[in-house]
Design a protein that fits this description.
- Helix content is 44%, strand content 13%.
- The chain contains 18 helices and 14 strands.
- A five-stranded parallel β-sheet has the order 2-1-3-4-5, sandwiched between helices.
- α3 links the parallel β3 and β4.
- α2 packs parallel to α3 and α17 crosses α18.
C-alpha cells in the first residue's frame, strides 16, 4: 500500500543507507539514497519528486539543516526527518524550527524511525487532500473547521458542495462551537449570490418586540423613536445571503411572518404599504433540537420543512476522532504565525491527550486552548500533554480554585444566579453566545439578566 510514496535517504554512512533502504523497500516504499547534501541539492534542481527526505544532520560539506532549508524553499510540502547524534540534540530542535517534521537521535531503534516515516507520510497525505478540498470549494472562508477526514466531515463537505450550487434554503444544526457560521459563510462564498452581502442575524439576541422591525425594517413614524426609514436585515441582504443564527429562539409570532416571507419572497416594512420583492438566499442555524420544539409547540412544523430543504448536521468535536489533531495543528500554525513565536509540534502524548479530552465547547474551545498554549508555551517547540493549556471548567474560578458557593450560609437564589452568570461570562471571556449555551438560557434571557444584575459581557459590574 506504500508503493506511491518516494523516499530519499541522505547519509554518508553507507551501512546506514543500506539498512534504511532495505527496511523501507520491504514495506513497499520507493527509495533512493545519496551520501551528501550536494547530491540531494542537484536532485532538487533537476527532477525532484520525493514525498519524504531522511537526512543525517552531520554531512560532509553542506549540513542536513542547510539541506532542509533548501527543500522547504523549493518544495514546502515535502516532509523531512532529521537524524542526529545525542551530543547534537540542539541541532534536531533547530531543525524542527526550520520546518522538519521530526528528528531522531542516533543510535536509534529502526522501528521507531519507521513509525516516524509512517506518521510523516500520513500527515502529508492529509494536507494534500485538504488542499484539494479547499480548492474545490473555491476559497471558502473559515477553512479550519472544514479540515478533517472523519466520515462525518466528508458528509458535511459533500452537503456544502450540493447546497452551494443552488438557491435553496439551508438549515445547519449542531452544538455550540461546531462551526455553523463557518459553514454558512462557505456556502455563501460558493453560491450564485456570492457577490452580494452576507448578513448575519443573531435571532436569540433580538428582543421579542423588535423582531419584526429588525428583520423587515420600518418606515419613519412607524413607532415612537422611528425617526427615519430603516431597512431591515432581509432588505440589507438583497442579492446576497441572510444567515438566521439561533433560529430556534424566534418567537412564534415572528415565525409566522418569516414563513410568509419565505413563501412569497417579499416583505413590507413595519408601518409601510410598499411590497418589496426579495432576491435573498436564506441560511439558518440552530443548536436546539427543532423536532422536540415542534412537538412542544415552540416551533412551527411548516416553517421547519420550508427552511430545511437542505439539512446539514455538524458533528461534535468528540465525534471527529483524529480530526482533532489536524485542527489543533492548524491552530498552532495560525497562532504561532500571528504571535511571531517559534513553530510548534505535538508529540504523541499531546495528540493522545487531545483526542481523549472531552470538548464541550467543540472547535471553538479547541481553538481557544491552542491559542492559550501558544501564549503560555512561547519558547517550546515540541509540546507534550502537560503543555496543553485548557480553559478552567465551570466549577472553578479563573484562578483555578474551587469556589465555595455557600461557605456555611444560605444565599438567596438571585445572588447565586448572578454569581453563575458572572462566572460564565468570565470563563467564556465575554462570549455571550457561548455563555448562554452553557447556562442553558436563551441569549435574550441572558441579556435581560445581565442588565438586571448590572453586568457587562465580561462579568464586571457596569
Amino acid at each position: 500500500m506504500n508503493n506511491g510514496f518516494k523516499i530519499l535517504v541522505v547519509d554518508d554512512d553507507t551501512a546506514m543507507q543500506s539498512l534504511l533502504s532495505f527496511r523501507l523497500e520491504s514495506l513497499g516504499y520507493q527509495v533512493q539514497s545519496c551520501d551528501s547534501a550536494e547530491q540531494a541539492k542537484q536532485m532538487l534542481e533537476t527532477d525532484f519528486n520525493h514525498d519524504l527526505v531522511i537526512s543525517d544532520v552531520m554531512l560532509p560539506g553542506m549540513s542536513g539543516t542547510d539541506l532542509l532549508k533548501l527543500i522547504k524553499q523549493e518544495h514546502s510540502d515535502v516532509q523531512v526527518i532529521i537524524m542526529t547524534a545525542y551530543p547534537s540534540l540542539k541541532l534536531g530542535v533547530d531543525a524542527i524550527k526550520s520546518g522538519a517534521f521530526d528528528f531522531i537521535c542516533k543510535p536509534f531503534d529502526i522501528e521507531q524511525l519507521l513509525k516516524l516515516v509512517k506518521n510523516a507520510l500520513e500527515n502529508q497525505a492529509l494536507k494534500k487532500e485538504n488542499l484539494v478540498l479547499r480548492q474545490s470549494l473555491q476559497r471558502p472562508t473559515g477553512v479550519s473547521d472544514l479540515i478533517g477526514q472523519s466520515p462525518r466531515m466528508k458528509e458535511v463537505r459533500q452537503a456544502i458542495r450540493q447546497s452551494s450550487s443552488s438557491r435553496a434554503t439551508v438549515l445547519i444544526t449542531g452544538a455550540s462551537g461546531t462551526g455553523k457560521e463557518v459553514v454558512a459563510r462557505t456556502i455563501h462564498k460558493n453560491s450564485p449570490v456570492h457577490q452580494g452581502l452576507f448578513v448575519d442575524v443573531n435571532c436569540g439576541a433580538i428582543p421579542e418586540n423588535l423582531v419584526e422591525s429588525e428583520l423587515f425594517g420600518y418606515e419613519k413614524g412607524a413607532f415612537t423613536g422611528a425617526l427615519k426609514q430603516t431597512k431591515g436585515k432581509f432588505e440589507q441582504a438583497q442579492n446576497g445571503t441572510i444567515f438566521l443564527d439561533e433560529l430556534g429562539e424566534l418567537p412564534l409570532q415572528a415565525q409566522v411572518k418569516l414563513l410568509r416571507v419565505l413563501q412569497e419572497k417579499e416583505i413590507t416594512r413595519l408601518g409601510g404599504g410598499e411590497t418589496i420583492k426579495l432576491n435573498v438566499r436564506v441560511i439558518a442555524a440552530t443548536n436546539r433540537n427543532l423536532q422536540d420544539a415542534i412537538r412542544e409547540g415552540r416551533f412551527r412544523e411548516d416553517l421547519y420543512y420550508r427552511i430545511a430543504l437542505f439539512l446539514i448536521d455538524l458533528p461534535k468535536l468528540e465525534d471527529r476522532g483524529k480530526d482533532i489533531v489536524l485542527l489543533a495543528e492548524h491552530f498552532l500554525e495560525k497562532y504561532t504565525t500571528l504571535e511571531s513565536v517559534p513553530p510548534k509540534t505535538l508529540d504523541d502524548s499531546a495528540k493522545n491527550f487531545l483526542v481523549k479530552t472531552p470538548w464541550p465547547g467543540n472547535v471553538r474551545q479547541l481553538e481557544n486552548s491552542m491559542y492559550r498554549t501558544v501564549l503560555m508555551q512561547e519558547d517550546k517547540t515540541v509540546l507534550t500533554d502537560k503543555d496543553i493549556q485548557m480553559l478552567p471548567v465551570a466549577n472553578q474560578s479563573v484562578g483555578g480554585n474551587t469556589r465555595q458557593m455557600f461557605d456555611g450560609e444560605i444565599l438567596p437564589i438571585h445572588v447565586l444566579e448572578a454569581q453563575a452568570i458572572r462566572e460564565a461570562l468570565i470563563i467564556t471571556r465575554g462570549n455571550v453566545k457561548e455563555a448562554s449555551s452553557k447556562l442553558e438560557l436563551s441569549r435574550v434571557t441572558l441579556y435581560r439578566k445581565m442588565k438586571e444584575y448590572n453586568l457587562d459581557k465580561f462579568g464586571s459590574e457596569e
